[in-house]
Write a structure and sequence with these properties.
The structure holds 2 protein chains of 2 kinds. Chain A is of the alpha+beta class. Chain A has 9 helices and 19 strands. Classes of the chains: A alpha+beta, B alpha/beta.
Chain lengths: 419, 464
Amino acid sequence: MALTKVVMPKLSEAMETGKVLKWLKQEGDRVEGGDIIAEIETDKADIELEAFGSGVLRRILVEAGGSVAVGATIAVIAEPDEEIGAALAGAPEAPAGPPKAEPEPRKAPEPREAPAPAAEEAEEEEEEEREEAAPAPGRRPRASPLARKIAGKAGVDLTLVPGSGPGGRIIRRDVETYLETAGRPAVPAVPAEEYEDVPLTSIRAAIAKRMVQAKAPVPHFYLTTEIAMDRAVALREELAALPDAPRPTVTDLIIRAATLTLLRHPGVNASYRGEAIRRFRRVHIGIAVALEEGLITPVLRDCDRKGLLQIAREARDLIERARQRKLRAPELSGATFTVSNLGMFDIDEFSAIINPPEGAILAVGAIVEKPVVEEGRIGIGRRMRITLSCDHRAMDGAMGARFLKELKGLLEVPLALLV
Amino acid sequence: MATEKLDLVVIGSGPGGYVAAIRAAQLGLRVGVVEEDRPGGICLNWGCIPTKALLRNAEVLRLFHRAEEFGIRVDNVRADFGAAIKRSRQVADRLSKGIEFLFRKNKITLYPGRGSLEGPTAVRVQGRDGVQALEAKAVILATGSVPKSLPGVAIDGERVISSNEAVRDEAAPGSLIIIGAGAVGVEFADVYAAYGVKVTLLEALPRLLPVEDEEVSGLLTKGFAKRGIDIRTGAKVMAVKPNKRGMTVEVEAEGKGERLTADRVLMAVGRGAKVEGLGLDELGVAVEREYIKVGRRMETSVPGLYAIGDVAGPPLLAHKASAEGIVAAEAIAGQSPRGVDYSTVPNCTYCHPQVASLGLTEAQAREQGQKVSVGRFPFQANGKALAMGEPEGLVKIVAEAETGEILGVHILGAEATELIAEFGLGKTLEATVTELAHTIHAHPTMAEAVMEAALGALGRAIHL
């Protein structure tokens, strides 16, 4: 069995670094391909890391708690007698991890009782050891030493700072600008009772960074329609009464309806790629899930090959695992379209921000009972308002409108969702 | 007279102008350069380069005088000052020809004559054989500077001279009063003193090389005094008058007046922008304290008209002019160059021992309220310096105490002007004293003192 380098996986477009939360296997343990060997915290969620090769977990390079850049080697799997030096040598040597205090320059002189030389030596040795134990050989963001020190002092995460030096290198000015504008030190400068500064979680930080990238360069337009959901609600209730079948949610019905409609409107199941518009032949639907720490969007893959009940079953499991932060790598990226439902919060209608590189996102409001006029009579109807946000670079208003019209038709006469 | 159409006209071919011209030509512009003297400007013909040749002569001569220290007996050492001047002219000539070659290679047209502005981008060249009109998309003014004098004192080129005459005159005076102890005054004091001229060096401010760090300037003063140079600091010149044989300079220091006499006076009180006759007023070019005002891309208040080097203000240094020339050329070619970072411009004086510095002095850093950590390393503790018999001087690093940022560096010593380059790179890359300290320096070299001073700023010099 060949040697396998375990690398920090890239789990989303925006992901630059990941943190090892926990090793589930220890050095010396035998692992088989597919075994879960570690838990990784990404900017989106916690995921379980599978081994891609079999052998013995020979060396863990990044201890639990350490962060490294995507692509950095975090462990090596090999046969017990296999030479792994080369793989280790390939590993980037610069430790990243939690911003460690540099031993130099001199700290503010601290009054110390002990006679200097011996005590200091001991302290330095300790420091060295800590440095070694400090996890995470990995690729650090490109930054000047001075920028690094200023960032370290101010508690700035350099992965969040855009660099303006040659080749995007982060220089002093960038850190200073970041401190002045976007980034505030995580620790409040003055203890203030009038407010509380909540340190950014990695999810929050990623959302903050990502939403700007998502909204600013993508020209959004919005289309809203109201759908009569009476029959869809009735269908859902009938399905719920079936024995041994999962109870589909409104979201599940919408995912199914959206999938069928997207297959007929590939222009909406599309991504603007600069030189081309990529139309997807498959439908992978992102489902926006609200967590305490922020929004994540696990991906239900291959919806085009799944029936309503399978979608319902898998979506429930996916959302459940997202809440427990137990998602797997392929479930964190690769959606071609996203559904965001705030109906359970009694929101009538809203517009969502597209999640690039996707071309559109569907924002779903609550189903409300309201007076409706049908065939000249006033009656009570269940109505739901949905809003499609579209990337105007990838599609035009009429395309989105045709998509919505068909989606509306499917949900209003929902039997087709079952075939 | 047909008007020549070009993309860029540069007036002046000194280290600002010729570099700007070459960079612009590299970027595909059709470039013309107007020069009334020889290509290369003051720096190459009458300033930096010939004086370095003279200083090297002074150094060789001093070594002969010191030969005994090395166990070498040399009798009848005779130094010919005229030959030193001739040698310096050869060096300058060779370099000036080099500029002409570079112009030809880059297809840059040289227009001999005096340039003046007819419009923001129109230049009139008054040559020996007539007038040539040039029209370009942009013009760079790179006319440099001229020596200044004291009010009421004329530089006659005979008994009151400037550096312009000093680099040409093959006859050394018996005695010389140098007014001004900046880089120019100090370098000529070094040269003339080596050739046995009785030198008096006057400075109105309290110390030699007033822009340099106090500690460095203090050490230099001691070294100069030991070599018999009469140094008067805090000395105000009240009058400069001819007498029967030479010149009398009346000075006042600490309230006391004194009359000094010498064969000649060398005026080294500074240089001023050379803008006369350019036609700036007619175009309404904004000028501030005699220098042309420019933005970060070196453009003046008149669009299309740029100024670089000495005319664009201090520091009046060749390498600063070149850096500005590149910025201007790239801006004119439609690129977006970053402006010159003036905090990384080194300052060099080539006397013995040499002085080189960059950034803030210790006093300036403290005035700014910076938390300062100073690292010093004397060449006395440096193996190479001792082996060479050059133990004078030190490397002094002024660092920010918490980040280790290099705020300033001050070097006095045999090869100080070469050693400063490491700090320029360090500053540009935003290295801190930690990186300097961790850089492996060859042993034995003077540059080890750089590493040791960095370690010193971190509180852990090895050889001290």
